[in-house]
Structure formats: C-alpha cells, structure tokens
Design a protein that fits this description.
Helix content of chain D: 40-55%
Order of helices and strands of chain D: HHHEHEHEHEEHEHEHEHEHEHEE
CATH architecture of the largest domain in chain C: Orthogonal Bundle
Low-confidence stretches of chain D: 35-46
Structural class of chain C: mainly alpha
Largest interface: C-D, 71 and 58 residues
CATH class of the largest domain in chain C: Mainly Alpha
Number of domains of chain C: 2
Largest sheet of chain C: 2 strands, antiparallel
Number of strands of chain D: 12
Order of helices and strands of chain C: HHHHHEEHEEHHHHHHH
Strand order of the largest sheet of chain C: 1-2
Strand order of the largest sheet of chain D: 2-1-3-4-5-11
CATH topology of the largest domain in chain C: ABC transporter involved in vitamin B12 uptake, BtuC
CATH class of the largest domain in chain D: Alpha Beta
Oligomer: heterotetramer
Strand content of chain D: 15-25%
Chain lengths: 336, 503, 333, 342
C-alpha cells in the first residue's frame, strides 16, 4: 500500500502516465541495449526539446480552459526576428542579445493581444488563435522575405540550440530550465495558484478577489513567450530562419499536454505531466523508428496511445467519483 | 372515488438519518393541493420520490387507486405527472413549440409535422390564454413566460397532475397573478396541482387543501375553510418548537456603525434599501425566496453593479471592487456554494489559501509552509472531515464544503462577513459548528450579515433580524421575544409584533 | 425567430460588403467565371462544414475531417488503380469509408468518453497514417497515379459552367437545413448542444445524437472525397491537410457557437462562401503572400470579435426587456 | 432516419451519374477546350508581342519560404525586370494540391499570359494544367512537372541526382558498406525520384552496399537531426547518409558531429548554406543546381512561348530543359563561384 502511494506521488494523480511505463518496458524488451541507453534518452530529449519548451508555457492557457493554436506561428516569427536582427547587425554577441530579447518581446506582444481579445470580447480562444496564426505567419514571411536566412555565426547564437553543456545538448537544458521555471510559477507562486483556481471555477475566484482578467492575459503572455523562445532555439538549432518553421507544432504541443493529463476544460494538468506527455510522444516516435516502422504508420500508434490513455483516465474517474460533469447515469447515485 | 394520487407511509433516509417518516399525502382530481413546511421538512424529498428522482425506502404510491412504481422521470411522465422546475429546464435556443414537444414530436419518417405541432401548441396557448407565441425562441422570453412554457410542456403531456415548486419566486406581482389565473384554469379543466410555496397569501388564495409537513411527518391536512395563515405557520413550526426556538437575545447594539447602506437601488431587483450594521453584531436577513436579499449583498460586496444609493464602510464610501473590499476586511460566503464558493478540483488547502495570499506570499512566491500550515490549522479548527487538507473540496460533503468556504475568510482580520444561506443542505451537527464559528467571530468584533431562509437559524444566531419583502426592507426585529411565527408572518407581509418597521 | 433572421441578415450583409469591396477595388471579381469558381472553391469545405455544423451545434468539435478526406480519397484511388472498380462502386466505397470514420469518432467520444477535441485530434493521426497504408506504391516508392476513370473525373466537371460539386453542396446544404429545422434529429441536435441535461431529462438519448452527428460528418467527408479526387484526378498523401481548420472557421463565421445550440446550415453556407470570397479576393491584389496572410487573419479576427460583440449586445437587450417587464409590473404592485 | 438519408444521397449521386451519362457534364479541360470561340480569341490575344504588350506572369511554387523557391523567384524576377511591360507575381502553393489548383484556376480566370508552376503532385495538377493550356495559357513547370503535355519543363535533376550520389558513394566506399536514407515527406515526388535513382544504381552496380534503413525527415532540418540521432543509436556502423535535400543533410551533419562519428553525408540542391557545411567538412557533397539560372530559364521560356503563341496544342510531348547538375564536394567547391550561390 505504502509503495503504491509512492509511485502515485511520482506520477501524479493521472492514470495516463502508466502508459508511458508500459511503452518503455515494451521497447526495452524489443530493443535491448539500444533503447534504454543514455545516448538514446539524450536523443529522445533532444527531439522533443523544441516543443517541450513550448509546452511549458502553452500549459497556462490550457489550465484556464483556453487554448493557444498560434504557438507554431509565434515560434517562426520570433526565430525570424532574432535571426534577421543578428544578420543585419553584423553577427555580434550584442546583436544576439538584442535579437533574442526582441524575439521574446514579439511573443509576449502576441500573447497580450490574445489575452486582451479573449478577456475583453469573450470569444473562443480556439478561433482567435487560429486566426492570429495567419497574421503571425504573415509577419514571419515579412521578416524573412520568404527566403531562408542562414545564420552560422556567432557561436553564442549557435550555442542556444546546438551547443552542449556537460555533454548534454543545450536545448535540453533550456527545456529543463523552462520546465522548472514553469513548475515554480505554477506551484510556488500566487499567480500559479490563481491559474489553477480560475481554470477550475472563475466565478468563485472573482468572489474571492482574484483578478482573473489579469491572470488570463498573463497566461497567454506566458504561452507567447515560451513559443518565441522555442522558435529562437529552433532557429539556432537549424542555423537559419524560415517563415514556415514550426508548422504543425501546435498539434505536438496539444498532444503532449493531453497525453500528460491536462483537461481541455481547464483546472487540471501539471507541468510534470506535460513533460512526461511530451516525452511519451518522443519515446513512441523514437521507439517506432528503432524498431524500424516507417514513419508513415506512426500515426496509428499515436492514435491508439492517446485514446487509450485518455479513455483509461476517463474510465477510472467515471467509476470513482461524482465529480465528473455531465452524464445522466450519475444523477441517481449522487446523494442529496 | 379514489384519489388521483395517494402516497402512503413513504419513508426515506439519507445516510441513516430519516428525512421522511411514514408520510401520507394524497391529491384529488382537479384540486390545488398546497404542500408547505419549513426548510428540511421533507417537501422536496417527497416530490423527488414522486417523480422518480430518488428511490423510496418504504411505502407505496397509488395512482387512481392502483399501486404503481415510479423508478425514473419517464415513469412519472407516463403516469401523467408534470413538474415545473425551479431552475427552468428548457432549451434556450429552441422555440416554444419545439420545447413543448421535445422528446414527443409528431413525426413521419423522422420529419416533424411542424404544422400539426404548432397547431396543437397554439390551441393549448389559446385555451389557457398564455402570453407566449408558439414560434418564439425561448431565450428571448422573460422568466414568467418561460414558466408558462414549462406549464405548457406539462399540459401537452396531458398531465393529470402538475407539480409547481416555488413558481412565483422570481415573478413580479403581475406575473404571479397571471400564473394564478392559469392555475384556476387548470383546476377547472380537472388538472390537479401540487403547489409548493412559502408564501402564505398565495396558498391561502389558491389551494383547496393544504398538507403541512414537519420534520418528515405529515403534521396536518387542512381543507380550504381551515386554512388560516396564523394556524398554518404554527403548524409548520410546531408549538413546542416555536417556544423552544424563540429568541430572547435580540438587542440593539451601541457599538460604532461599521456598514451603512442608504437608498441602495437596482432597477427591477430591489429599491431604496437602507440599514446599518454595527461592530461585532450578527444581523440576520430574513425573507422569502426572491425577496432580493442575495442581490443586495452581492451589490454591497462589489460582485454586481447597482444603480443608485450609497454604501459607507466605517464612515468612508465603499469601493465597488471586490479585491479592494477584501483588503479592508470583507468576507463573502455565497449562496450557490458549488458554482461560486469553491474550486472543486483544488484541495482544501489551496481553496482556503486563495483569499490569503496577501499574507501567505512574499514577492509573489507562495510561502508553502505557511500555506500548508493554514490548511492544516483550518481543517483542525473547523473540524473539516476527513481531516486531510490535501483532499479536493469537490469530494467533501456539503457541510464540510461550507466549512472550507468559511475557512477562506477566518484567518483574515475580518471586519464584515456576509454569509448567504450558511447551512443550506448541511446536516445538524455541522450546522451547530458553523453557528459557533459565527458567534465567535462576532465576539471578536467582526460584524456578520447572515442571509438565511432557515427561521430557526435566524433566531438562534441573530442579534437583529431584518426582514425583506419584494425588494424592500419590510421590518426589523431588534428587541423583545420573537418566535419563528413572527418572522414567517413578516416574510409574508403580516406584522404580528411591531418591530421598527420602516414603513 | 426575428433575432435569428437578424443574425442571418448580418452575415449575408458582411459577405456582400466583402464582395463589393473586392469588386470595386480589384478587376475581374464580378465575372461569371470568377463567381462560379468561387462557388466551386467553397463547395468542398462547405459540404464538410454541413456535418461539422451539426457537431458544433451539439457543442462538440471535429478535427479529423481533413485527414478523413485524405484517407478516403487515397482509398478510392487505391481501389481504382489496383482493382479498376466501376465508378459507382468507388463512390459507394468512398461514402462507406467516410461514414466508418464518423462511426469511429462517435464511438470514441460516446463510448470511451474521450472528449471530442482529443478524440478527433487522435483520429486525425490515425486517418493520416491510413493514407499511407493505402498509398499506391511502385517498388516500394509512393507513386501518385492519375485517375483515368471518366465516371470519377466527371465529378470534377460542370454543367453549363456550374460545377457538380457546387450543385451538390447547395443540395446537401438544403437537405442539412431541412434536417436541422424539420426533423426530430435536428431538434435533438439543438437540444443536446444547448442544454444537454434538459435534453436527457426530456428523454432524448444525447449520446446517440452525438454519435449520429459524427456519422453524418463522416458521410459528408466521403462525399467530399469523391469530388476532391474527381477534380484533381489523383489522390496525394497530403490531401486535406489543414482542411479541418478551414471548415471550422467557415462554420463559426457562419454563426455556430462553440458553446453549442446556435447556428444553422444557412449560416454555415454563407460562412463557407465568405471564406472562399476572402481567399479569392485577396489573391487578386497581387500582394506579397505575407500581406495576404495578414489581411486574411485580420478580417477573420474582426468577424469573430464583431460576432461576440453582437451576441453580447443581443443578450443585454433580452435581459433589459425582461427587466423592464418585471419593473413595470413591480411598479404596479 | 439515417437509412433514409443515405438513400436520399445515393439517389442524388445516381442522378449525378445519369447526368454524366447524358454527356452534359464536362470536365474542366473539356469545358475550356469546348469554348472554341473564346479559346480562339485568347489564343489570338496570346500571340501578342511579349516585349511590348502588357504581360502578366505568375509563379506558383510548391511552397514558398525555402531557399529553392526564393532562388527561383529571384532568377525569374531578375530576368523579367528587363521588361517594363511584364508584371510578375509569386504565389504560395502551401505544399497542397488543393491550394495549387485553386490558384491555378484563379490565374486562368484572370487571363494570365503564362504560368510557371512547380507541381506539388504531378497527377494532381494535370487537370488544371490542361485547362490552362486549353485556354491558351502556356504552363512552364519548374522542377516538378504535371502529368500531362504542357508547354515546357525546366528541371533540375532528381532521378539522376540519386544516381550520381549512388555512384559517388559506391565508388568511394569501394563497393561495400552501409548506407541510411533520410527521406522527404512520404509521397513527395522529388524525394521519391531521388530514391528511385539511388536505389536503382545501388541495386545494379553496388550489391555490396547495404541500405540499412530509411525514415522520413519531412524536409526539415530538425527532424533530420532527430532521425539521424536514432540511426546513430541503432547502428554502430554507418558509412554514408543520403538526404533528399540539403536542409536535412545539415541536420544530419549536426547529429553526426555531436555524436563524434564520421561518415559521408549527401544532400541535394546546393544551397549556399550547404556549401558552407561542405567547406567546413561537415557534409560530403551535394548535387548543385543553379536555381537562379533555372528560374531565369523558366522566365525566358515563358517569354518565348507568349511571343510565339505556342501552347500544348502545338506539342505532342512536353519539351524538357534539364539544368546541368554539378556534383559538389570539397574538391570542386571553388567551381561554384560567389555569384552562383543562392
């Protein structure tokens, strides 16, 4: 019993994470001496690092019951800004600093716009971020003039995405750093507490004196910031900026969050779960490649894993509590 | 001739505590039968058993003399029992006709015969002279009109019995009158009505018979001639109880005024509300559902805007922002606990901490140890069960949820606590604990405004009782010996004892 | 009723305004061929949008439509190439396969209790992969083959300049509108989305309704796939990528609310045409692609914000009306 | 209920097929060709003076934003800027057959004088290409052609590129070794063609070389990096990597460098960044095509076709101009002079 509790605390409340353990076990057996090696783990982490960084910020709107579909576009635009700035200002370290800060600022501005529109006009975030996705990709095209902007120098910029620290790619460090930062914000600050609370019951929060509008805006800013950061890392990793960078990353991010136990209704989910979720997706892709399944068929496995994870979770909860919304089947069981 | 409905020796208990103890209840065809009783007397449980929402523990239901089982709403509907819910259960984006016919559309191969259905609904509307049209969309209707749609829905099912639960709670006088006309019409048509209401004058005006429930037992069944407001009130409360719960502790406070409300008005909801609250005082707000008490409190707290009037706190005009009001010592426990009181997925600790981050945090960072300590302290201080501050509030029982909501405020330097229906849906033991908490708060100088529909509670806890009626302050009891009867009469607009009525 | 008409008028008006702007500021917008081609462009999105409107009116969402179209198209191409089945049979297969996609979505949503968003996000992965399962390969390499069956190709054709796909779209839209407004199912769809609890209480099997709308959507994806391959004369592996978002945008711009219970097929059709006009008009200015994207995004944002402001205004009015009524009555009391 | 709907729709579909039987329904190209009168006038109009009358030329690449498309556009613009009477527009195919078809359609409606197309899918753009040609608009395809006769194709090599890389690897490895492939997005024509050429040569001439594995890097640098990492984990011995474009080769090179291993890495395209990689010794080689020149060639072809009034009608097969590929390795890097880099 005690042991069980320990494992539970490690994985959080979500049942879905057990799937990860199962998948890893299978792969370890299938690919002995290859899958479960430090080098391979490193390679998995590297492969998820870009959207792993995004996940750390995109979780904020998700926790509020919102969504941010513009993260890919923001990443492209921020990367484009940083690279063009560095290229235009002579590849100096100073230019790198300004470029990176500028890219982040761009992400933050997009976040503010989202937050303000969502709070002021009560429009569905799904739609508004889908529309701004167009605009932000447009900005990325403007910045790059639809060309590939190569940026091989300076070393400081290349280090962001391609460097190594203690034998571990720097982008993984950034991902861990962002995850920890995000963890601290979500779990150790008042703002983080408010995010969960507003996501769980906005009206109760208002009556408890929480400035929910501010909480929402800041959450979208967080999302924009991490998207921008991941875009910059991606640009550095590829030593270039292209307008269509990070297309489709919105899906990766959502998948990671959902697999990691976040509920799109808000109020539920943890950064730990999200990173585990991202890791699981990475593990699956990696595992399928190692086993030699063509990338064409990865989707089938992904679908099954996601559905299994979420359905398992839903099932367990459905059985366990009356908390679940909806479902007429419950009404009788609920006590007066 | 057999009665239309007969419920015999109905029993029901929740968690071992009996709610209905062998209740008998019967309705004749074409009669308006009022069902009255204090909160917790067992009215709604009885109705829920009748409509198949709760299973009964014992007893038998007879319909036209035949024993029947009602396991779900469908069973009830097929017998001919229609219910007008307090919270309307219409589909807002559909038309009146679609709502009325929902689930029983006349159709051929899946295609509805709109013409025929509209004709049917229009006929019904005309027959009863309702003020709605068949093709109006429900969300554009007023609440009174929506209620008539609910009634139409019941009528269209050819219900023999329609249950109305506090139907006039949110209606204006004119709208109520229209409803009474409808009920008259129903009676003429041979449709029976079970009419649940706290409003004596309505019951007096409408009902053919009246059953009074008290503590899960049938106290009396009165015929029209026997119905007399004062008697009914006495029956509802019970003589011994009335004596036992009478309050001798009413008094005026001479402590400084903490909150002064003057001329507070919100169009169509309440107007010209004025009262004063002193330091360390517990003031009860009595009134029937819909009297405007909750709305007044929300406006004072800053949750809703108001149209006119002034609110002064310790001599200074009060801000209209919740956050600022909390900063100067306000606390607020809302009526709708589940939707407004707490965040169900979060633990007791996190819920309690939500209002306290001004002290529990430094530079935006939560002092985790202090937060945890507060949670543990509060669980201990309020004896919240189970005694673990990490359990999500949504998983607690009603009483413990309410304690958790209260706990949000208790560690603060509270100057004024507004608490709306503090013990609704809470068991007796927890009630007492909550009263003790309120009393202790007052002893320490906090002013408490308690909105309550529970007369016993009002008398037990309050030092003064302000009675609201139809959006206005009706009277105030602040001295002498007051019984539940007095308050209930006042709520119904009858003054037995001269308080300091504003009028 | 009046409010609904008002809403319709506004969406038609915004479409007209947009068209007028393009008509006066660019050349060749108001020509028969251009208008016919706009009506062609909107049709495939529109056909699927009919189904997705149903889903969104039940307060759900379907993110898998684009991938479903891709999968079904490839399946048809595959059967045409390897088995040379007759066109009629291929169409039947297409519709069946599409319907099956819908059945699967519905199953996951109602039986496995996976929220719509997640369920259809994951089936999107699945259908995308199924494309590759059925992709035509020559010595292991995916090779897109031209479809030569005239019975399929004719589906991309036109009668007197009016494209078959346009005709089908309008026909299906009318059928869809009829289903929504004239059948039991339609009423149940609104009821499910608007207030699921009450719908349940009224004896409606809301799970069945939710499953049905997914099946209809799948069915329409099957139809859309026929026209898709008929028009382009082959099936490619990336066919339908991103289509789901275009569809959702059309549906929502047409007045269906994510919260459910609102909107109709008329609005959706206007929404689909709106998106096609926008796309068509923007291309006429010879602007750089960046400017095109930005304009498109800004117009959509304006539409969404306007819609929300309008809805809030209407709600306020209803409230005021209801307040006034009580007030008048209260005054007398 | 549902059954009824299904039958309703089936009836609709049947009606449609009956209509088809009547021969009233015309496919696009039939419709365009059928309007004889109109087509004739357009044709007459397109026999206009390419160097004096107002001319509109559109360029529709598979997707914009990559270096090839940019270089092509630059080359075209560079050439067409010589003529004041020519308007030149670049569109975005968004790597989608649908989008490309839509834009083609619109260019036809707006009576463009010539279209330069990089077809996302050869079969998928055949119909609209036919329609354009039937309407008298010459279509010149750039690299990726449409599967129908049209005015011209200006192609960089793809099958040949695969073959040449195979030759080089085969020779330098001495006929035995292990190779992995990081391929394009599955189904992409260019990638599939490179694969075809590469595998054919390997099979025929270098049976001793084993192709260990093939996974998609979806044209992207970062994905190629991931895929390469997995290959490196899985196979302790790899002698050469073939990537279907330079961007992926760069990603693979980073992975190989990070792992501290050494092997041949090949890309295709010859973008300037790749040349830098080759210079630094990170990549082995690429098949260089002068994309700017190729763009200019497309533009020249257009002007010629407009001036002479040639469309597919006058042709029995698509004339092809092949850009000469240069196999670039560190040894001959200097042959690619600064002005040839893009």
């Amino acid at each position: 019993m005690n042991k069980k509790m320990d494992i539970k605390t490690i994985f959080g409340k979500s049942q879905r994470l057990w799937i990860l353990v199962a998948v890893m076990l299978v792969l370890t057996v299938l690919q002995p001496g290859v899958f479960l090696t430090a080098a391979n783990m490193k390679s998995i982490l590297l492969s998820i690092s870009v959207y792993g960084i995004m996940v750390c910020g995109t979780i904020f709107p998700i926790l509020l019951g919102g969504i941010d579909l513009s993260v890919g576009a923001v990443a492209a635009a921020a990367g484009a800004f940083t690279v063009t700035w560095i290229v235009d200002h002579g590849f100096t370290n100073g230019a790198v600093v300004v470029g990176v800060l500028g890219g982040l600022l761009l992400g933050a501005i997009v976040g503010v716009v989202h937050g303000v529109i969502v709070t002021r006009f009560a429009v569905p975030p799904f739609l508004i971020t889908l529309a701004t996705q167009n605009i932000v990709y447009g900005v990325a095209q403007l910045l790059t003039e639809n060309n590939v902007i190569a940026c091989m120098e300076p070393a400081s910029f290349a280090f962001l995405g391609g460097g190594r620290l203690l034998e571990i790619p720097f982008s993984i460090w950034i991902m861990f750093f962002m995850a920890i930062l995000s963890y601290i914000i979500l779990n150790k600050t008042v703002f983080g507490r408010n995010v969960y609370a507003v996501g769980g019951n906005a009206e109760a929060c208002r009556l408890s004196g929480v400035r929910s509008r501010m909480v929402i805006i800041l959450s979208y800013v967080a999302s924009g910031l991490t998207a921008a950061l991941s875009g910059i890392v991606l640009a550095s990793m590829n030593r270039q900026a292209i307008a269509k960078a990070a297309q489709g990353y919105d899906n990766y991010v959502l998948t990671a969050l959902v697999v990691g136990g976040a509920s799109l209704m808000g109020g539920e989910g943890s950064i730990l779960g999200a990173v585990w979720g991202a890791f699981l997706v990475g593990v699956i892709s990696n595992g399928l490649r190692l086993v030699g399944v063509a990338s064409d068929y990865h989707g089938i496995v992904k679908c099954i894993v996601i559905v299994a994870a979420v359905a398992l979770d839903a099932h367990v909860r459905y059985k366990k509590s009356g908390l679940q919304k909806s479902s007429s089947l419950f009404r009788k069981k609920e006590k007066a | 001739m057999a009665a239309l409905l007969e419920m015999k020796e109905i029993e029901k208990s929740f968690n071992g505590s009996p709610v209905l103890k062998k209740v008998d209840f019967s309705v004749e065809p074409g009669e308006v039968h009022a069902l009255m009783g204090e909160n917790g007397a067992g009215k709604s449980t009885l109705i829920k058993i009748l409509t198949g929402i709760y299973p009964k523990d014992g007893g038998q239901i007879y319909w036209n003399g035949n024993p029947v089982t009602v396991d779900n709403r469908k069973d009830a509907a097929s017998l001919g029992i229609g219910v007008i819910y307090q919270e309307l259960s219409l589909i807002p984006t559909l038309t009146v006709m679609q709502n009325v016919m929902l689930g029983k559309e006349q159709s051929k191969l899946g295609f509805v015969n709109a013409k025929k259905m509209k004709q049917k609904v229009t006929e019904l509307i005309e027959k009863y002279g309702f003020a709605v049209k068949a093709d109006e969309v429900v969300e554009t209707l007023t609440i009174a009109q929506r209620q008539t749609v609910e009634i139409l829905k019941a009528l269209s099912e050819e219900s023999k019995l329609i249950i109305m639960d506090e139907p006039t709670a949110s209606l204006s006088a004119k709208e109520s009158d229209a409803l009474f006309d409808i009920i008259e019409q129903l009676r003429k048509d041979g449709v029976s009505v079970i009419y649940i209401s706290h409003r004596l004058e309505e019951v007096y005006r409408l009902s053919d018979r009246l059953t009074v429930l008290r503590d899960g037992e049938t106290e009396a069944v009165l015929t029209k001639e026997q119905i007399n407001p004062a008697d009914v009130v006495r029956l509802m409360i019970g003589k011994e109880l009335s004596e036992a719960t009478a309050s001798n502790s009413l008094r005026k406070s001479d402590a400084p005024v903490r909150l002064k409300v003057d001329g507070l008005t919100k169009k169509g909801v309440f107007h010209n509300i004025g009262f004063e609250i002193h330091e360390g005082e517990i003031v009860g707000f009595a009134g029937l559902v819909g009297a405007g008490r909750t709305e007044v409190m929300r406006c004072i707290y800053g949750a809703d805007p108001y149209d006119a009037g002034t609110v002064e706190f310790e001599g200074k005009p009060l801000s209209k922002q919740i956050t600022k009001n909390i900063g100067i010592g306000f606390g607020f426990v809302p009526e709708d606990r589940r939707n407004q009181g707490f965040t169900p997925l979060l633990s007791i600790e996190k819920n309690v901490a939500l209002t306290n981050y001004d002290t529990l945090a430094k530079n935006g960072f939560v002092k985790a140890a202090a937060e945890k300590k507060l949670g543990v302290d509060m669980v201990e201080r309020l004896a919240i069960k189970p005694g673990d501050s990490q359990i999500p509030v949504g998983n607690l029982s009603g009483g413990n949820q309410q304690k958790a909501v209260l706990a949000k405020w208790l560690s603060r330097d509270l100057k004024l606590l507004i608490i709306d229906e503090p013990t609704a849906g809470i068991d007796i033991g927890a009630k007492d604990e909550i009263y003790k908490i309120l009393e202790k708060l007052a002893e320490n100088g906090t002013s408490v405004i308690m909105v309550s529909s529970d007369l016993q509670e009002l008398l037990r806890v309050s030092q003064r009782i302000i009675v609201m009626r139809k959006g206005e302050v009706f009277t105030e009891f602040s001295s002498g010996r007051i019984t539940q009867e007095d308050v209930l009469m006042a709520e119904s607009g009858i003054l037995t004892k001269e308080g300091e009525a504003d009028e | 009723m009046r409010q609904e008409n008002m809403r319709r008028l506004i969406s038609v008006a915004s479409l007209v305004v947009l068209a007028l702007v393009f008509g006066f500021t660019s050349s060749g917008f108001f020509t028969a061929t251009n208008i016919l081609s706009i009506l062609r462009e909107c049709a495939i999105t529109g056909i699927i949008a009919i189904g997705v409107s149903f889903v969104i009116i039940t307060a759900g969402i379907d993110l898998s439509t684009g991938a479903a179209v891709g999968f079904v198209s490839m399946l048809c191409a595959n059967f045409l190439y390897y088995y040379a089945l007759p066109a009629e049979l291929i169409m039947l297969i297409s519709i069946l396969a599409g319907t099956l996609c819908g059945v699967l979505n519905g199953f996951i949503v109602t039986k496995l209790r996976v929220p719509e968003f997640i369920a259809t996000l994951s089936t999107q992965y699945l259908f995308r992969s199924m494309v590759f399962v059925f992709a035509i390969r020559e010595s292991g390499v995916i090779t897109n083959k031209k479809i030569t069956d005239p019975g399929i190709l004719i589906m991309g054709g036109s009668i007197n300049g009016i494209y078959l796909v346009t005709i089908t779209f309008f026909a299906l839209a009318i059928v869809g509108q009829l289903i929504l407004k004239k059948t039991k199912l339609g009423t149940y769809i609104y009821a499910t989305g608007s207030n699921r609890k009450s719908a349940d209480l009224s004896g409606i099997n809301t799970d069945k309704v939710r499953w049905t709308v997914f099946i209809i959507t799948g069915f329409l994806c099957g139809i859309a796939a026929i026209f898709e391959i008929g028009r382009i004369g082959s099936a490619t592996t990336d066919l339908g990528t991103g289509l789901e978002f275009e569809v959702i945008a059309a549906v929502v711009i047409g007045g269906c609310a994510f919260s459910g219970g609102r909107g109709d097929i008329f609005g959706t059709a206007v929404g689909a045409i709106f998106m096609a006009v926008l796309q068509n008009g923007i291309l006429k200015y010879n602007l750089p692609t960046a400017a095109q994207l930005i304009i498109k995004g800004v117009v959509i944002v304006i539409m969404i914000v306007f819609d929300s402001v309008y809805n809030q205004y209407m709600q306020k009015r209803i409230q005021q009306k209801s307040n006034q009524d009580t007030q008048m009555a209260g005054g007398e009391a | 209920m549902k059954k009824k709907l299904v039958s309703l729709f089936l009836a609709g579909a049947m009606v449609a097929s009956i209509l088809a039987g009547c021969g009233n329904v015309k496919t696009d190209s039939e419709a365009a060709a059928g309007d004889d009168g109109e087509a004739a006038t357009t044709e007459a109009a397109s026999g206009k003076d390419a160097y004096a009358d107002d001319i509109k030329i559109g360029f529709l690449p598979n997707v914009i934003g990559d270096s090839c498309a940019a270089a092509w556009a630059e080359g075209m613009e560079g050439y067409l800027n010589n003529f004041a009477n020519v308007t030149f527009n670049v569109f975005d195919g968004k790597a989608s057959v649908d989008t490309e078809n839509t834009i083609m359609e619109q260019m036809i409606n707006e009576k463009y004088d010539a279209i330069i197309l990089q077809a996302t899918d050869a079969a998928g753009l055949a119909a609209t290409t036919d329609k354009a040609e039937a309407a008298g608009i010459p279509v010149i395809t750039c690299n990726l052609d449409a599967d129908t006769t049209h005015t011209g194709l200006v192609a960089a090599v793809d099958i040949e590129a695969g073959e040449q890389i195979a030759e080089y690897i085969g020779e330098s490895l001495g006929g035995s070794g292990k190779v992995v492939i990081i391929s394009a997005t599955p189904g992409a024509t260019k990638g599939e063609n490179i694969d075809k050429g590469f595998k054919a040569v390997m099979e025929e001439k270098y049976a001793g070389i084993e192709i260990l594995d093939e996974q998609s890097g979806e044209w992207l640098t970062e994905n190629a990096n991931t895929v390469m990492n997995d290959f490196l984990t899985k196979y302790s011995e790899i002698d050469a990597v073939l990537c279907h474009n330079d961007a992926m080769a760069e990603g693979a090179a980073e992975a190989v460098k990070a792992a501290g291993r050494e092997m041949q890495i090949w890309g295709v395209d010859g973008e300037s960044k790749m040349l830098d990689y080759i210079e630094q010794g990170l990549c082995t080689g690429t098949i260089y095509t002068d994309c700017q020149k190729q763009g200019a060639a497309c533009a020249q072809f257009c002007m010629y076709a407009i001036g002479s009034g040639i469309t597919a009608k006058n042709l029995s097969a698509t004339p092809i101009v092949k850009m000469s590929p240069i196999v670039v390795t560190k040894d001959n890097l200097s042959e690619i002079t600064e002005d040839m880099r893009w």
